[in-house]
Amino acid sequence: MKKIYTKAALALMVTTAGLQASYVVAEEITGDRDNRGWFVGGALSYANGEAEAGNTTFLDEDGIGFGVYGGYNFSDWFGLEGSSFQSDNMAGDRAGLDSAEFFTLSFMPKLTVNFNDSVGIYFKAGPTFVMYTEEYNDYEGDYWDDEFDWSEVILGAGVGTEISIQDGVKLRLSYDYVSGNLDENWYDWDAPNERVDVTLGRFALGVHYQF
User: What is the pTM of this model?
Assistant: First the structure.
């Protein structure tokens, strides 16, 4: 079985366990609950992805993608958030490359500063599962397989602002960033690279509902 499934399952279990634990802890918290409770939403992103190996950059492209996020706010200033993101095809015009895509799954503590009842800014950081996938056309016969992927759990971070637009509905403007080394999942002898260095930054416009 591919190593990616182990990594993805680990990241998913951490996210699920964290959100479940947040519910248990939240049951013991009392006080003003205006911004407390579960929230869930989606976001459209404009992303830049880079990939290199051996100091040689073989991908540096812009693209769009969609993500979902949700979590629990314990108070007006502290919460836990899980999120995922899937990019579109960011292959560009590289010869022989049909598609290049990024996928992320994260679970992070989130700190928020509220300026008033309607506007606040937040910062979050924590473990992020990142997968980078390349798919090739096979007319040149360079690789035995036509698809390879690399993945790892690395540190990511995000910053943004949230604006209340009506009761329970919030608009989010954010920037998320992750950078690090990813290992090839199959460890195939003909893989283009055993390890790649990736950087993914994305601006996002999202909307969520605060229960």
Answer: 0.81
